[in-house]
Predict the 3D structure of the following.
Amino acid sequence: MKETIDGLRESFEQELSKAVSSEAVEKLRVAYLGKKGSVTELLKGLKNASADQKKELGQHINQLKKQVEEKLLHQIEAIQAAEEQRAIDGAEQYDVTLPAGGDPGSYHPITIVQRQLEEIFTSMGFTVEDYPEIVTDYECFEAVNVPKDHPARDMQDTYYLENGQLLKTQTSAAQNAILRKYGAPCRSIFPGRCFRNEATDASHENTFFQMEGIMVDKDISISNLIYFMKTMLSEVFERDVKVRLRPGFFPFVEPGFELDINCLICGGEGCSTCHHSGWVELCPCGMIHPNVLKMGGVDPEKYTGFAFGLGLTRLVMMKYGVKDIRDLNSGNLKALSQFRHE
Ligand code: DAH
Protein backbone atom coordinates (compact mmCIF):
# COMPACT_ATOMS: atom_id res chain seq x y z
CA MET A 1 0.00 0.00 0.00
CA LYS A 2 2.82 2.33 0.94
CA GLU A 3 4.41 1.74 -2.47
CA THR A 4 1.15 2.51 -4.19
CA ILE A 5 1.02 5.82 -2.35
CA ASP A 6 4.57 6.74 -3.35
CA GLY A 7 3.94 5.61 -6.95
CA LEU A 8 0.86 7.80 -7.11
CA ARG A 9 2.81 10.79 -5.83
CA GLU A 10 5.44 10.27 -8.51
CA SER A 11 3.00 9.89 -11.35
CA PHE A 12 1.07 12.94 -10.10
CA GLU A 13 4.20 15.08 -10.17
CA GLN A 14 5.08 13.92 -13.64
CA GLU A 15 1.64 14.69 -14.95
CA LEU A 16 1.55 18.01 -13.15
CA SER A 17 4.74 19.17 -14.84
CA LYS A 18 2.99 18.65 -18.19
CA ALA A 19 -0.24 20.39 -17.20
CA VAL A 20 0.31 23.89 -18.56
CA SER A 21 -3.27 25.05 -19.03
CA SER A 22 -6.08 25.61 -16.52
CA GLU A 23 -8.10 22.87 -18.24
CA ALA A 24 -5.27 20.34 -17.90
CA VAL A 25 -4.88 21.15 -14.19
CA GLU A 26 -8.62 20.73 -13.67
CA LYS A 27 -8.49 17.33 -15.39
CA LEU A 28 -5.68 16.32 -13.09
CA ARG A 29 -7.66 17.43 -10.04
CA VAL A 30 -10.58 15.26 -11.11
CA ALA A 31 -8.25 12.32 -11.84
CA TYR A 32 -6.71 12.40 -8.36
CA LEU A 33 -9.18 14.08 -6.03
CA GLY A 34 -12.52 13.67 -7.81
CA LYS A 35 -15.22 11.22 -6.61
CA LYS A 36 -13.53 8.41 -8.48
CA GLY A 37 -10.04 9.89 -8.33
CA SER A 38 -6.98 7.76 -7.45
CA VAL A 39 -6.42 9.37 -4.03
CA THR A 40 -10.12 9.12 -3.19
CA GLU A 41 -10.05 5.44 -4.15
CA LEU A 42 -7.08 4.87 -1.87
CA LEU A 43 -8.98 6.43 1.04
CA LYS A 44 -11.99 4.25 0.25
CA GLY A 45 -9.72 1.17 0.23
CA LEU A 46 -8.73 1.85 3.83
CA LYS A 47 -11.91 0.30 5.15
CA ASN A 48 -10.47 -3.17 4.44
CA ALA A 49 -7.26 -2.50 6.39
CA SER A 50 -6.61 -3.41 10.02
CA ALA A 51 -6.94 -0.81 12.76
CA ASP A 52 -3.16 -0.25 13.00
CA GLN A 53 -2.71 -0.03 9.26
CA LYS A 54 -5.66 2.27 9.01
CA LYS A 55 -3.96 4.79 11.26
CA GLU A 56 -0.58 4.69 9.56
CA LEU A 57 -1.78 4.46 5.97
CA GLY A 58 -4.51 7.01 6.65
CA GLN A 59 -1.85 9.49 7.64
CA HIS A 60 0.16 8.83 4.46
CA ILE A 61 -2.82 9.09 2.19
CA ASN A 62 -4.04 12.29 3.83
CA GLN A 63 -0.56 13.73 3.47
CA LEU A 64 -0.58 12.87 -0.22
CA LYS A 65 -4.03 14.39 -0.59
CA LYS A 66 -2.82 17.62 1.00
CA GLN A 67 0.26 17.73 -1.21
CA VAL A 68 -1.82 17.15 -4.33
CA GLU A 69 -4.23 19.93 -3.33
CA GLU A 70 -1.45 22.41 -2.63
CA LYS A 71 0.48 21.64 -5.80
CA LEU A 72 -2.63 21.93 -7.94
CA LEU A 73 -3.34 25.31 -6.40
CA HIS A 74 0.21 26.55 -7.04
CA GLN A 75 0.10 25.31 -10.58
CA ILE A 76 -3.19 27.10 -11.32
CA GLU A 77 -1.87 30.32 -9.80
CA ALA A 78 1.28 30.15 -11.90
CA ILE A 79 -0.76 29.56 -15.05
CA GLN A 80 -3.02 32.53 -14.33
CA ALA A 81 -0.06 34.83 -13.64
CA ALA A 82 1.54 33.75 -16.92
CA GLU A 83 -1.72 34.38 -18.80
CA GLU A 84 -1.97 37.88 -17.33
CA GLN A 85 1.60 38.66 -18.27
CA ARG A 86 0.97 37.43 -21.80
CA ALA A 87 -2.08 39.74 -22.03
CA ILE A 88 -0.01 42.71 -20.87
CA ASP A 89 2.89 41.94 -23.21
CA GLY A 90 0.62 41.35 -26.15
CA ALA A 91 -1.56 44.42 -25.54
CA GLU A 92 -1.52 47.11 -28.20
CA GLN A 93 1.07 49.69 -27.32
CA TYR A 94 0.11 53.33 -27.90
CA ASP A 95 1.35 56.74 -26.97
CA VAL A 96 -1.34 58.63 -25.05
CA THR A 97 0.41 61.93 -25.70
CA LEU A 98 -0.08 61.73 -29.47
CA PRO A 99 -2.87 63.90 -31.01
CA ALA A 100 -6.05 61.93 -31.72
CA GLY A 101 -6.05 62.54 -35.47
CA GLY A 102 -9.09 61.62 -37.55
CA ASP A 103 -12.30 63.60 -37.22
CA PRO A 104 -11.91 66.26 -34.53
CA GLY A 105 -15.71 66.69 -34.19
CA SER A 106 -17.43 70.04 -33.99
CA TYR A 107 -19.30 72.21 -31.55
CA HIS A 108 -23.07 72.39 -31.68
CA PRO A 109 -24.16 75.76 -33.12
CA ILE A 110 -26.01 76.53 -29.87
CA THR A 111 -22.78 75.99 -27.93
CA ILE A 112 -20.92 78.24 -30.35
CA VAL A 113 -23.39 81.11 -29.96
CA GLN A 114 -23.78 80.58 -26.22
CA ARG A 115 -20.02 80.86 -25.73
CA GLN A 116 -19.90 83.91 -27.94
CA LEU A 117 -22.61 85.57 -25.84
CA GLU A 118 -20.86 84.61 -22.63
CA GLU A 119 -17.73 86.31 -23.89
CA ILE A 120 -19.62 89.47 -24.87
CA PHE A 121 -21.39 89.70 -21.53
CA THR A 122 -18.38 88.89 -19.36
CA SER A 123 -16.51 91.66 -21.20
CA MET A 124 -19.30 93.97 -20.01
CA GLY A 125 -18.92 92.86 -16.38
CA PHE A 126 -21.60 90.14 -16.20
CA THR A 127 -21.11 86.84 -14.38
CA VAL A 128 -22.19 83.60 -16.08
CA GLU A 129 -24.38 81.35 -13.93
CA ASP A 130 -25.26 77.70 -14.24
CA TYR A 131 -28.64 76.56 -12.94
CA PRO A 132 -30.42 73.19 -12.68
CA GLU A 133 -32.96 72.03 -15.24
CA ILE A 134 -35.16 70.53 -12.53
CA VAL A 135 -36.65 73.25 -10.34
CA THR A 136 -39.53 73.87 -7.98
CA ASP A 137 -42.81 75.54 -8.83
CA TYR A 138 -41.72 78.40 -6.59
CA GLU A 139 -38.50 79.03 -8.57
CA CYS A 140 -40.09 78.71 -11.98
CA PHE A 141 -43.30 80.64 -11.34
CA GLU A 142 -44.11 82.05 -7.93
CA ALA A 143 -40.75 83.77 -7.34
CA VAL A 144 -41.13 85.55 -10.69
CA ASN A 145 -44.56 86.89 -9.86
CA VAL A 146 -46.61 84.11 -11.44
CA PRO A 147 -48.74 82.83 -8.56
CA LYS A 148 -50.75 79.61 -8.76
CA ASP A 149 -53.81 80.06 -11.02
CA HIS A 150 -52.19 82.97 -12.92
CA PRO A 151 -53.31 82.75 -16.58
CA ALA A 152 -49.67 83.22 -17.76
CA ARG A 153 -49.09 79.63 -16.64
CA ASP A 154 -51.29 78.36 -19.48
CA MET A 155 -48.57 79.18 -21.99
CA GLN A 156 -45.92 77.26 -20.12
CA ASP A 157 -47.15 73.74 -19.50
CA THR A 158 -44.26 71.44 -18.72
CA TYR A 159 -43.20 68.01 -17.46
CA TYR A 160 -43.70 67.31 -13.77
CA LEU A 161 -41.84 64.89 -11.54
CA GLU A 162 -43.73 62.78 -9.04
CA ASN A 163 -42.28 64.83 -6.18
CA GLY A 164 -43.86 68.03 -7.58
CA GLN A 165 -40.65 69.42 -9.12
CA LEU A 166 -40.69 70.29 -12.81
CA LEU A 167 -38.49 70.78 -15.84
CA LYS A 168 -37.96 74.51 -16.07
CA THR A 169 -39.95 76.28 -18.74
CA GLN A 170 -37.86 79.43 -18.69
CA THR A 171 -34.43 80.52 -17.54
CA SER A 172 -36.27 83.14 -15.46
CA ALA A 173 -36.51 80.27 -12.94
CA ALA A 174 -33.00 81.20 -11.80
CA GLN A 175 -33.73 84.89 -11.18
CA ASN A 176 -34.67 84.52 -7.54
CA ALA A 177 -31.63 82.43 -6.63
CA ILE A 178 -29.25 84.79 -8.40
CA LEU A 179 -30.76 87.89 -6.80
CA ARG A 180 -30.37 86.17 -3.45
CA LYS A 181 -26.82 85.09 -4.25
CA TYR A 182 -25.51 88.53 -5.20
CA GLY A 183 -28.05 91.03 -3.92
CA ALA A 184 -27.63 94.50 -5.47
CA PRO A 185 -25.73 95.55 -7.50
CA CYS A 186 -25.72 92.51 -9.75
CA ARG A 187 -25.05 91.71 -13.42
CA SER A 188 -25.50 88.10 -14.45
CA ILE A 189 -26.45 86.00 -17.42
CA PHE A 190 -27.74 82.46 -17.11
CA PRO A 191 -28.04 80.32 -20.22
CA GLY A 192 -29.99 77.08 -19.95
CA ARG A 193 -32.07 74.37 -21.51
CA CYS A 194 -35.83 74.85 -21.12
CA PHE A 195 -38.75 72.50 -21.63
CA ARG A 196 -42.39 72.90 -22.56
CA ASN A 197 -45.13 70.43 -23.20
CA GLU A 198 -45.74 71.53 -26.78
CA ALA A 199 -46.59 69.97 -30.10
CA THR A 200 -43.51 70.31 -32.28
CA ASP A 201 -43.30 71.89 -35.72
CA ALA A 202 -40.68 73.83 -37.68
CA SER A 203 -40.62 76.62 -35.13
CA HIS A 204 -41.66 74.86 -31.89
CA GLU A 205 -39.74 72.31 -29.85
CA ASN A 206 -40.38 70.81 -26.43
CA THR A 207 -36.70 71.38 -25.62
CA PHE A 208 -34.91 74.62 -26.43
CA PHE A 209 -32.35 77.06 -25.08
CA GLN A 210 -32.74 80.49 -23.61
CA MET A 211 -30.32 82.94 -22.16
CA GLU A 212 -31.58 85.14 -19.40
CA GLY A 213 -29.83 88.20 -18.05
CA ILE A 214 -30.40 90.61 -15.22
CA MET A 215 -28.77 93.85 -14.22
CA VAL A 216 -29.70 95.48 -10.92
CA ASP A 217 -28.24 98.66 -9.54
CA LYS A 218 -29.19 102.21 -8.57
CA ASP A 219 -30.88 104.16 -11.40
CA ILE A 220 -30.99 101.39 -14.01
CA SER A 221 -33.40 102.45 -16.74
CA ILE A 222 -34.80 101.36 -20.08
CA SER A 223 -31.91 103.16 -21.83
CA ASN A 224 -29.46 100.78 -20.14
CA LEU A 225 -31.57 97.87 -21.33
CA ILE A 226 -31.60 99.10 -24.93
CA TYR A 227 -27.86 99.78 -24.88
CA PHE A 228 -26.94 96.29 -23.67
CA MET A 229 -29.33 94.53 -26.04
CA LYS A 230 -28.12 96.49 -29.04
CA THR A 231 -24.45 95.96 -28.20
CA MET A 232 -24.99 92.24 -27.69
CA LEU A 233 -26.94 91.73 -30.94
CA SER A 234 -24.53 93.81 -33.04
CA GLU A 235 -21.65 91.64 -31.80
CA VAL A 236 -23.47 88.40 -32.44
CA PHE A 237 -24.49 89.37 -35.97
CA GLU A 238 -21.23 91.19 -36.59
CA ARG A 239 -22.99 94.29 -37.88
CA ASP A 240 -24.96 97.21 -36.54
CA VAL A 241 -28.48 95.93 -36.00
CA LYS A 242 -31.56 98.08 -35.65
CA VAL A 243 -33.83 97.23 -32.73
CA ARG A 244 -37.25 98.36 -31.67
CA LEU A 245 -39.26 97.88 -28.51
CA ARG A 246 -42.94 97.05 -28.45
CA PRO A 247 -45.00 96.71 -25.32
CA GLY A 248 -45.25 93.09 -24.16
CA PHE A 249 -46.70 91.52 -21.06
CA PHE A 250 -44.67 89.30 -18.76
CA PRO A 251 -45.63 89.11 -15.08
CA PHE A 252 -42.02 89.50 -13.92
CA VAL A 253 -41.36 92.84 -15.61
CA GLU A 254 -43.06 96.22 -15.52
CA PRO A 255 -42.98 97.69 -18.09
CA GLY A 256 -42.38 94.69 -20.32
CA PHE A 257 -41.29 94.69 -23.96
CA GLU A 258 -40.80 92.61 -27.01
CA LEU A 259 -37.49 93.55 -28.55
CA ASP A 260 -37.46 93.08 -32.31
CA ILE A 261 -34.50 93.29 -34.64
CA ASN A 262 -34.57 94.48 -38.19
CA CYS A 263 -34.85 91.30 -40.32
CA LEU A 264 -31.35 90.30 -41.38
CA ILE A 265 -32.58 88.06 -44.16
CA CYS A 266 -34.30 90.82 -46.16
CA GLY A 267 -32.77 93.89 -44.52
CA GLY A 268 -36.19 95.10 -43.44
CA GLU A 269 -37.87 94.97 -46.85
CA GLY A 270 -40.19 92.12 -45.82
CA CYS A 271 -39.79 88.39 -46.47
CA SER A 272 -41.25 85.07 -45.30
CA THR A 273 -38.92 84.86 -42.29
CA CYS A 274 -40.18 88.15 -40.86
CA HIS A 275 -43.75 87.50 -42.06
CA HIS A 276 -43.30 90.50 -44.37
CA SER A 277 -43.08 92.93 -41.48
CA GLY A 278 -39.36 93.69 -41.74
CA TRP A 279 -38.92 92.86 -38.03
CA VAL A 280 -38.18 89.67 -36.11
CA GLU A 281 -39.16 89.15 -32.49
CA LEU A 282 -36.03 88.06 -30.63
CA CYS A 283 -35.76 89.07 -27.03
CA PRO A 284 -38.53 89.74 -24.54
CA CYS A 285 -37.36 92.00 -21.76
CA GLY A 286 -38.35 94.70 -19.32
CA MET A 287 -37.76 96.42 -16.03
CA ILE A 288 -37.79 93.88 -13.20
CA HIS A 289 -41.08 93.94 -11.31
CA PRO A 290 -40.73 95.29 -7.72
CA ASN A 291 -42.31 92.06 -6.41
CA VAL A 292 -39.54 90.00 -8.03
CA LEU A 293 -36.85 92.20 -6.52
CA LYS A 294 -38.54 91.98 -3.13
CA MET A 295 -38.79 88.18 -3.27
CA GLY A 296 -35.10 88.12 -4.21
CA GLY A 297 -34.24 90.12 -1.12
CA VAL A 298 -33.54 93.40 -2.98
CA ASP A 299 -35.18 96.65 -1.90
CA PRO A 300 -37.18 98.01 -4.90
CA GLU A 301 -37.24 101.47 -3.32
CA LYS A 302 -33.47 101.69 -3.65
CA TYR A 303 -32.72 99.61 -6.71
CA THR A 304 -34.09 99.02 -10.16
CA GLY A 305 -33.03 96.57 -12.81
CA PHE A 306 -33.70 95.14 -16.22
CA ALA A 307 -34.14 91.53 -17.29
CA PHE A 308 -34.20 89.84 -20.66
CA GLY A 309 -34.96 86.32 -21.81
CA LEU A 310 -33.18 85.81 -25.09
CA GLY A 311 -34.40 82.91 -27.20
CA LEU A 312 -30.98 81.36 -27.75
CA THR A 313 -32.29 78.68 -30.06
CA ARG A 314 -34.14 81.27 -32.11
CA LEU A 315 -31.06 83.48 -32.26
CA VAL A 316 -29.03 80.56 -33.59
CA MET A 317 -31.67 79.89 -36.25
CA MET A 318 -31.58 83.54 -37.26
CA LYS A 319 -27.80 83.74 -37.30
CA TYR A 320 -27.26 80.60 -39.39
CA GLY A 321 -30.48 80.62 -41.40
CA VAL A 322 -31.73 77.33 -39.87
CA LYS A 323 -35.30 76.89 -41.11
CA ASP A 324 -36.47 73.98 -38.94
CA ILE A 325 -35.87 74.12 -35.17
CA ARG A 326 -35.99 70.31 -35.00
CA ASP A 327 -32.71 70.09 -36.92
CA LEU A 328 -30.94 71.43 -33.84
CA ASN A 329 -32.03 68.54 -31.62
CA SER A 330 -31.85 65.83 -34.25
CA GLY A 331 -28.25 64.78 -33.64
CA ASN A 332 -27.84 64.79 -37.41
CA LEU A 333 -24.08 65.00 -37.75
CA LYS A 334 -24.24 65.85 -41.42
CA ALA A 335 -26.13 69.04 -40.59
CA LEU A 336 -24.29 69.86 -37.37
CA SER A 337 -20.76 69.27 -38.67
CA GLN A 338 -21.13 72.28 -40.97
CA PHE A 339 -20.19 74.40 -37.97
CA ARG A 340 -16.86 72.68 -37.34
CA HIS A 341 -14.73 75.55 -38.64
CA GLU A 342 -15.87 77.89 -35.86
N1 DAH B 1 -39.26 83.93 -19.46
C1 DAH B 1 -39.97 84.47 -20.59
C2 DAH B 1 -40.44 83.34 -21.48
O1 DAH B 1 -39.84 82.31 -21.52
C3 DAH B 1 -39.06 85.39 -21.36
C4 DAH B 1 -38.76 86.66 -20.65
C5 DAH B 1 -39.53 87.76 -20.87
C6 DAH B 1 -37.68 86.76 -19.78
C7 DAH B 1 -39.25 88.97 -20.27
C8 DAH B 1 -37.38 87.96 -19.15
C9 DAH B 1 -38.19 89.06 -19.42
O2 DAH B 1 -36.39 88.10 -18.30
O3 DAH B 1 -37.87 90.24 -18.82
O4 DAH B 1 -41.42 83.49 -22.14
Residues 2-90 form one domain. The mean pLDDT is 91.
